[in-house]
Design brief:
Blueprint: E1 13-23, E2 26-38, E3 45-54, E4 60-73, E5 78-85, E6 89-98, E7 101-111, E8 118-128, E9 131-140, E10 146-157
Antiparallel strand pairs: 1-2, 1-10, 2-3, 3-4, 4-5, 5-6, 6-7, 7-8, 8-9, 9-10
InterPro entries: Calycin (IPR012674), Nb(III)_bact/plant (IPR022939), Nitrobindin (IPR045165), THAP4-like_heme-bd (IPR014878)
Domain THAP4-like heme-binding: 4-155
Pathway: Nitrogen metabolism
Length: 164
């Protein structure tokens, strides 16, 4: 692993779990999630997240959001994250890492002409008792930034480097 990634190495691996969501424009819901953080020896982590709607019994109903991107650790515990969504939104987050806590806010949001109105986000990630806890607040559809989704994920797979 590239030595610059040491502050965020705790993210490496495959994580699965469940969370809750809501927003003024939608009904509250439960969702399942898988996040995979990887690396290939370069100074960034790869990132993929998939979510799906859960029914009251915890069964998968249908796919929800997907995002993919790259996490770059900078000097002085600063962090840059580039995320892309298949719905026509690209985000650049900036933030910092303090021990096993990461706080990010959008620096840039770009949208295609067909994308929904989305203007910014704030994300918190933390390792708590071995689980990855995270929360996402967003500003969209004419609303100020507010809580949207949060989840608790358990590590279900160790990371195997993608290095040749």
């Amino acid at each position: 692993m590239h030595p610059d990634l040491e502050p965020i190495a705790f993210l490496l691996g495959r994580w699965e779990g469940a969370g809750v969501g809501g927003y003024p424009t939608i009904e509250s819901f439960n969702f399942g999630q898988e996040i995979v953080f990887g690396h290939n020896g370069k100074p960034f982590l790869t990132y993929t997240s998939r979510t799906w709607l859960l029914d009251e019994a915890g069964n998968r109903v249908r796919p929800l959001g997907t995002e993919t991107g790259f996490w770059r650790q900078l000097p002085e515990r600063r962090l840059e994250v580039c995320l892309s969504h298949p719905t026509g939104i690209v985000e650049i987050y900036v933030g910092e890492v303090v021990f096993h806590k990461i706080e990010l806010h959008t620096d840039v949001v770009a949208r295609t002409a067909s994308a929904k109105d989305y203007t910014g986000g704030h994300r918190l990630y933390g390792l708590v008792n071995g689980n990855l806890m995270w929360a996402y607040d967003m500003a969209a559809m004419g609303h100020e930034i507010q809580s949207h989704i949060s989840a608790e994920l358990k590590r279900v797979g160790d990371f195997v480097p993608d290095v040749v």
